[in-house]
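Re: the 470-residue chain
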Amino acid sequence: MTSPAPTARTTAAGAGGGVFGPAHALVSLALVALITVIAFEGMAVSTAMPAAARELDAVRSYGLAFSVMLTTQLLGIVLAGVWCDRSGPLPSLYAGQLLFAAGCAVCGSSRAFGLFLLGRGVAGLGAGLIIVAGYVVIGRVYPDSLRPKVFSVISAAWVLPSLLGPPIAAWVTTTWSWRWVFWLVVAPVVLAMTMVLSRRAQIAAADDGIDASSRDHRAHTRAAWFGLLIAASAGALQWGTHDLSAQWSAQTVVAVVGVGGIAVAAPLLLPAGTWLLRRGLPSVMLARFLLTCSFFGTITYIPLMLVNERGQSLGTAGTILAVGSLGWSAGSWVQGRDRWAGRRDRLVVAGGVLLTAGLLGVVAVTHFDWHPWLIALALVACGTGMGLGTASLSVLSLTLTPPADHGATSSSLQLADVLGSVIGIAAAGAVFAALHTRAGQDVPVFVGMWLGLSAVAACVVLAGSRIRAR
């Protein structure tokens, strides 16, 4: 495994101490604030959406509130890669914060479901711009030695919203209104923007000495168009599978068209050889795709199984998922240790093993009718594997790429991440919708669905072993 030669900028950047040392404190706080807000919005909206759907008379269209945001987030991810390579991370970061805050404000003010979906789409576009720009900032502002710790902190920023987001959102919705769940997001985004503005000179200075991107104007334009294609295709796939039946219909055709669009666009937006397990960066991208595909495809349906098949309350199901998020934090902390420098590909392999074991544990608890709280233990293993794998892959993606191309690489990594989630959730949804009979009789459906996703997780081990060059 090779890495770009250290530069004067990288060496100098290390002089400011740790992640929260004097040279990096405000940038680190701004990144943590932005990720925390995005995570809180994602977790809290899941709790507030039933109330929003009832008030806006959109219960049948419930899933669109989530799929619209994922679709526009994919577009934002691709556009941010182009924008960051051409102009640095600051313009994308500014625009992303404004769009995310504006989208949440529109959702909170909506009196019709169409306007609500527009707000979700705008917020998703902003989130895509923010996440990629944030990765580029990490690649350019922090030295190599600090990046694993930065990603450990960033991963930990997802934990508190996972634990506190649902109960806070439930209290806010019950005490005031679901609208306040969206409005409360705006103030932290404004605060984070203030911190970014105070350090704009430092972030801009990090671009000095960076060579021009290896992609020319024509390549950037093509990437933008294919980004639009993959976003539209992902939206078609999600719409076509959200209520699928075991027979051909207009929805089935839309889903097939969506799969075709993704098959055309994805290879052109990811490094060459990604789907062929080529060594180095392509295997980094494939491993990230496989991790999110298997993990999110599974946990999306765990609450449904617990409620419908085991008679558990929504509160219990949410608590079981929250316990699993602690494993993610632990895995992220472990990968941030200096001892793994130069051996980070082993953490990806270990993450794949733990995720596979955890998912098989979920299958066993479901099939053998063991105590439902054992799923929490299985999810701790899954979360630990995800923490080890995803954070390590983030570090590897920057290490294996020259700084001039950090925008394109960060965009590809986030594209693989979100695309994995979309396909995993859509595939699980299609299988469940096609085979579902009625509540209380779906255990074989869940078991078969999760066994397939466990096999996908096992492929992470192979992808991780292909990251290191011979």
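Confidence is low (pLDDT under 50) at residues 1-15.
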